[in-house]
Amino acid sequence: MHHLATLYYSGKGTEKNLEEAFYWYQKAAENGDKGAMHDLAIYYENSEGTEKNLKKAFYWYQKATENGNDNAMHCLARCYENGIGTEKNLEKAFYWHQKAAENGDKDAMNCLAVCYEISKGIAKNLKKAFYWYQKAAEYGNNNAILNLANCYKSGKGIEQNLEMAFYWYQRATENGNNNAMHCLARCYENGIGTEKNLEKAFYWHQKAAENGDKDAMNCLAVCYEISKGIAKNLKKAFYWYQKAAEYGNNNAILNLANCYEIGKGIEKNLEMAFYWYQRATENGNNNAMHYLAECYKDGIGTKKNLEKAFYWHQKAAENEDISAMLCLAKSYYIGEGTERNMEKTFYWFHKAAENGNNNAMEHLATFYKIGEGTEKNLEKAFYWYQKAEENGNDNAMHYLAECYKDGIGTEKNLEKAFYWY
């Protein structure tokens, strides 16, 4: 019966007929054929030759497992893992992944490793995760090969070994793993486990992009934009930014907005720039918040709205955007889109200065010098003028000279004053 069902399924010696195949799998399963039980479960799960019935799929996976069908163990694990035809139970999913893995199922080995890696139905154990990724990789599971490479790259469950990471990324790519192509490109791009080679990096970014990897699409666009391993081509850069953005890559959405704003590889279109800045922000791209604020502030692709500009500068600043911190401080200082507030002005100048913004350092020094938004502190004023100059702020040289000339926050020193003038 099982053999007859298989013939109907494959169309060997007769016309392919999934309904007949289902009928004979069912007959064979009901007569105790454990292989047919497994196949019948698959038919119920995938609605082949019959209506989809996940509860019956689970039932027959369970029956097949109870009757010693090793292939059904991994399927039963999937049912418990994803709540297919039964209640979700990660502990039982782990149990059956383990049983299947111990019986040589390479897919179950990879799933078992994932369980150990992310604490799914079992306590986290990175050494065991590595062990099972390695076993599955040796058996040829392509996802495990990629996961094994990631373990070597990040030192997860094993000592970091970039050469081994590169080796396994290559192996995964040779086996047709599209996700590995982008990782291999990164290795060539940054010299990870191999010599840096921008032409090979471009090649693998391109291969991955052509196979639908949205992150690789964005990287490919960058290559075309800044001539990285390939001749500069802004039209192709725009094309791949657009493709990656359509696939939902958040960095590409921001890059696409920039292209529209300045007319890079496409005709300038401020309305489209604003649209994509909004999209990037909605998708949680913190860098886009500052750009969106600038659009509202200057009326780029939308009506000028200082309150919304302030709102997005604040959001960006709270998400550690240093440029936005400076803008937010200035908004509080002049009362643009919000009430004037010297204490908050001082606070955000201080935050931006601590994060390395040399303009904020100059302003912060001045606030300490005149005691605005904070107590007057000439030593701190001198300190921040020095920091601003050290970080490339040319205006700070003049203020530093004044400090030495008049002894502001430091000892009076006319030679140093002359030097900085």
From TrEMBL:
InterPro entries from the UniProt entry: Sel1-like, Sel1_AlgK, TPR-like_helical_dom_sf
Gene3D superfamilies (alphabetical): Tetratricopeptide repeat domain
Domain of life: Eukaryota
Cross-referenced Pfam families: Sel1 (PF08238)
Family stated for the protein in its record: Belongs to the sel-1 family.
PANTHER family in the record: ERAD-ASSOCIATED E3 UBIQUITIN-PROTEIN LIGASE COMPONENT HRD3, SEL-1-LIKE PROTEIN
Name recorded for this polypeptide: HCP-like protein
Native species: Rhizophagus clarus
Lineage: Eukaryota, Fungi, Fungi incertae sedis, Mucoromycota, Glomeromycotina
